Amino acid sequence: MKARILQRGDVLKIVDLLRLQGYEVIAPFRGRGRDTYFDTVTDQNRDHLQLHLPNPYYPPKRFVFPPIERMMMFQRSDGKIQIEPAYKHPKRAIFGIRSCDLAGIFHLDRFYLGREFRDVYYENHRRNLFLVNVVCTEPDLDIGEECFCVCADTGPAARDHFDLQLVDLGNEVMAVAGTPAGEMLFSDPIFSKGTAQHIEKRHELLGRLRKSFKKDTTSWFSATVRYVSQGEILEKTWEEIGNRCLECGGCTYVCPACTCFTVSDRQVGPNEFERVRVWDACALSGFTRMAGGFNPRRSVHDRRNRRFFRKLAHYFIQRELSMACVGCGRCAAVCHGDVGMPTVVEMIRAATNEAKPR
Amino acid sequence: MIAASTQNVYLPKAAVLERVVCEIPEVKTFYWRFEDTTEQKAFKHFRPGQFAQVSLFGVGEFPTSLPPSPTEDETFFTVRQVGSCTSALHHLTPGERFAVRGPYGNGFPMAQYYGKNLVFVAGGIGLIPLRSCIVYALSNRDKYQHVQIFHGAKTPKELMYVPKLHEWEQTPGVECHLTVDRATDGWKGNVGVVGSLFKKQGVEIPVENTIAFVCGPPVMFRFVIKDLLAMGFAERNIVSTLERYMKCGVGKCGHCCIGVAYVCVDGPVFTYEQIKRLGEDI
User: Fold this and answer.
1) Mean pLDDT of B20-49
2) In chain A, how many domains are there?
């Protein structure tokens, strides 16, 4: 991987370069309160861009997997039917994607584009996506109460899957290219060669960062992954987790690695119908209910069991080459019953440990 | 980085409904063909036990078994009217269009069963997916040993594929045993659950070198499994096909996932040994 140095004041010029190349650039912005959100960069809001700010509640997943997406149209005329797929081929760049969300997109890549069937809609969104990763180097601004990327091994500095990675060294920024497309940007005069001191500074900064996380938001996955994979978790533990779940589906909605969707048809004209896919959540009771009413997963703790099994079982980690939890902490922030990932990992670890014969 | 355009696996192909046959109350067989003959040819390579996704425009899509054997000429579905999509299909008249994509799933590994005895146990509409295997086995008769069919229904009116049942009863070298829960309409045959046929005089089920196909409602499934295990069947020699709520059929939407298995791509055919490990109700 190649690296270059640029002045802190020149960093937004990367956004300009990408926009000149025809990319729609998406970046996190600060709202009126403490909240932040992803939006398209325009000439008007370009100067409000910040390198360091809390990661938005809604992950950038929707730019590769929209919450509602038209899949195809059906048109009926003279008894015949026309079936037309609905494709979009956006050319987008996400500037300021955090390492956790980057891992989320990598996970989605493996899931939607791996194995026997490839998902053409996901592929269309993904093909021209340029990812500029910003490493969370300002603990007060970047690292939230709930962040646990150090436990999920996705951050604070991503090792891979970005086109360009920016590490804020103070007055200067180190840019690392992860792909040939990222390296192409280095031909611009804002980039200059770095020295050994820059590398040393980066190393020292990242080492210090790992200690900037809150002590009580750690999530010790390894034991829990083992218990989940070997089916050692007591029904009682799932019941306890289930009792605290309000079945709102919020955790799946904010998760950068959740993949489930439902498909729905609706009439849009006298002889015209559209088929859309919509995010779905395994927390909802209708998720597995079949026509006729039979539901193999009736109780809420069975459904919680499902979510955490799917995310933590070794079989799936191996299948997608990454865990379906990236440590962003959004589920922990959004959950009213406090059964987000870090809590569940701890509940399972403690309860199973205790129950084991010594 | 990411390869150029991929085939759209979600896109169904237009099909024409040709004729409809009433099987039993609420269950009809729909004979259809693809508008495009090349699609029809490609589809005909399905394996017994696979399934297809059927689209009703503006209503939705549902997964359904493929009752025909690939050795037969016609393509058809046998469907119970139970939800909005199946109702929409039931309301179609011959000549009208719907759409189909598939075939999906693993299907029964019929070639692995060469040289074995086959025992088919079907309760009610559980005969729909097994019909494919039975017809397939009988058209490759020399490849299989003894073939036994056990089919049970609530009443004689609810026996599935009656003309086919009669044909199987007349076929030399094939045993076809029928039973009903309640004898009506002058029924002269056996009365009782499917399992009661196993103990009938003259019925002998070979356990050695035998594969048992079991399909039917959950209660029937549990009891038949118990009977078969008591007879000495190994769990891996009992096979069935599972049903789940499904949206995509290609392992992406997540609805049909049980344990580590996506029913749509890893199934729907599983051995009882596998089903037991999935850890969820059938």
Assistant:
1) 94
2) 2
Q: Which residue, among B55, B57, B244, B274, would best test binding to A if mutated, counting the most A CBs under 10 Å from its CB?
A: B57
- What number of residues does chain A have? 358
* Nearest chain B residue (CA) to A111: B252
To which residue do tokens 């980039």 refer?
A191
Residues of chain A neighbouring B243 (CB-CB closer than 8 A): 290
Q: Which pair of tokens denotes residue A85?
A: 């797929």
Minimum mean pLDDT range among A60-64, A122-126, A205-209: A205-209
Full domain range(s) for residue A306: 221-258+284-355
Q: Is A297 on the interface with B (CB under 8 A)?
A: yes
> How many helices and strands in chain B, by DSSP H and E?
8, 15
Among residues A108, A111, A107, A64, the alpha carbon closest in space to that of A89 is found at A64
pLDDT of the residue at A130: 97
- B196–chain A nearest CA distance, Å: 27
Instruction: Report if residue A157 sits inside a domain.
Output: yes
A22 contacts chain B (CB < 8 A)? no
Q: Give the ipTM of the model, two decimals please.
A: 0.89
Residue B281: what pLDDT?
62
| CB-based contact B2 A123, cutoff 8 Å | yes
Q: Which of A188, A193, A97, A109 is nearest to A136 (CA)?
A: A97
CB A209 within 8 A of CB A137: yes
Token readout for A243 is 């009792």
Task: Please enumerate in sequence order all residues whose Cβ is within 8 A of that of A153, keeping only pairs 6 or more positions apart, or say none.
Answer: A327
Residues within 8 A of A (CB atoms), B 224-243 only: 243
The pLDDT of residue A358:
61
Given a cut of 90, whether residue B118 has pLDDT beyond it is: yes
Phi, psi of A270 (to 5 degrees): -55, -40
Listed in sequence order, the residues at least 6 apart from A138 whose beta carbon sits closer than 8 Å to its beta carbon are A52, A168
Tell whether A242 and A200 lie within a shared domain. no
Percent with pLDDT over 70 in chain B:
97
Inter-chain residue contact B7 with A120, CB threshold 8 Å: yes
Nearest to A259 among B62, B84, B254 (CB): B254
Number of domains making up chain B: 2
